[in-house]
Amino acid sequence: MSNLKYLDLSFNNLTGRIPQSMRGLNLTHLSLAKNKLNDTIPDWVGEVKTRLDLSYNNFSEVSFVVPDDKRDHLNLFSCCSRSTDPDQLFVPSKTWGYSLSGDFFSTESNSSNFIQNQSFGIHVPEAELYSVARIAPVFLSYYAYLHKGKYNVALHFAEIVFREKESYSILKRRAFDVYIQDERMLTNFDIAEEAKGPGEPKTRHFVADVNDSVLEISFYWAGKGCADDPPTLNGPLISAISITPVPQHSALWRKLKKALIITLPSSVAVLLLLLAFMWKMGWLGKTELREIQIGQDKHVTLQELIGATRKFSSKMEIGRGHFGRVYKAELEGGQTTVAVKRLSTHSKENIEELLNEFYTLKSLRHENLVQLLDAYFGEGLHLLIYEYMPNLSIADAFFGSKSRLKFNWETRFNICLGIARGLEHLHEHPRLKMVHRDIKAENILLDGALNAKISDFGMASLYTEEEQLMIIKVEAPNGHMAPEYAIQGIVTSKVDVYSFWGGYTRNC
Questions:
Q1: Annotated binding site
Q2: pTM over the 0.70 mark
Q3: How many domains does the chain have?
Q4: Binding positions for ATP
Q5: Which of 246, 339, 459, 482 has a beta carbon 3.0–4.6 Å from 150's, enabling a disulfide?
Q6: Same domain, yes or no, for 32 and 132?
Q7: Of these residues, 438, 447, 456, 496, which one is catalytic?
Q8: Is 438 assigned a catalytic role?
């Protein structure tokens, strides 16, 4: 075993914990990605020199802080059942993203964000479409947020790396599997073989169902097809992706005459822009029948949601603030309850900006943040749907005349700790690093077990600078707003720390 340098155990349904014996292996690369490993990731993982891929597993937590000099060697994307920092998730436009795992072996090609360019020898009208491709060492996934429904998916390929037919047939062969919504669609797919040679385009078509707002398309290299030792640049490769809704009637089909082509890596945002426009124009079905997500695999129509608020009746109102009013909505015969925030009409009206903000906020998941479930942005009606907090805010719990809750010091301390953890997640998130700007008792909610959850994070970005200044003028006299923010408009994470102290700790 002393000569073993590369060990790939990915996609093997391995369970249990990482054995201690692996610590002593003299490996340069070890992949345990896409398994079912659980328990805590051991501390020694952060110390070894091996390039280690633990992505896509079921670990309970990471028990150590990853040193800065190890971040490029350790892939922990989606490795835990609890929320973890998505270091390997790239989100170019906030509304779609992709992740990669694995390593290239040659130093000149070792990149976690690898793009191949080759226009020579592609003799088709759409040559530009195939001249740029993304390649990954082992695993590549794309994510797009879409409405529930059926979609036509076209995957565009051209072998632009292994160019010479002789060397391709003898030494270099690319074969990988393709998954859509976790279902394997292609096995050992060989681009050049399917296209009858390198540099020739090949398109494969599929139909995908979207039920939870996310369409996932994945490509996985299982180690087959290449005789190189060590293997280089032989992972999955994709040139472009085309996605269009399956037409429900002829009128919709006429509006979709031009297919949406997503060139990689720069033009995927076109997909979300077109869908947002179609959404706004009402081309994707009747507005009142549009489905809204209210939980895991739970959906209701917009009409049912509005009906559950009694058409935004004051009797169902459970909160209000600068950004709008919040209503309680009981659905499915009272079995499911959500909170519906109706944004004020003076918030930004640009639907593209609203969509971008919504998908950013929805991607933030933490036990001390109120979970955003879904959103609706139509003409004159902007709704955010959140998980429901039965004990409302700490302002209601501590100071409300109708509150019957009792808080001992241990409960108060745990609430304080929960707020701090939620703020840490917002401030230290590797991609977003968000400052709340409005931490106060009204924005700290309590669930049924009195766990603290921060609400209204990200709301400030939905408003113009002028409107934010008006909010500062209102809140500054209350004493919980940092002076540098209230007076000069300077925004840092210290703004939230100051408000945390002023809005909660001194009142607990």
A1: 341
A2: no
A3: 4
A4: 341
A5: 246
A6: no
A7: 438
A8: yes
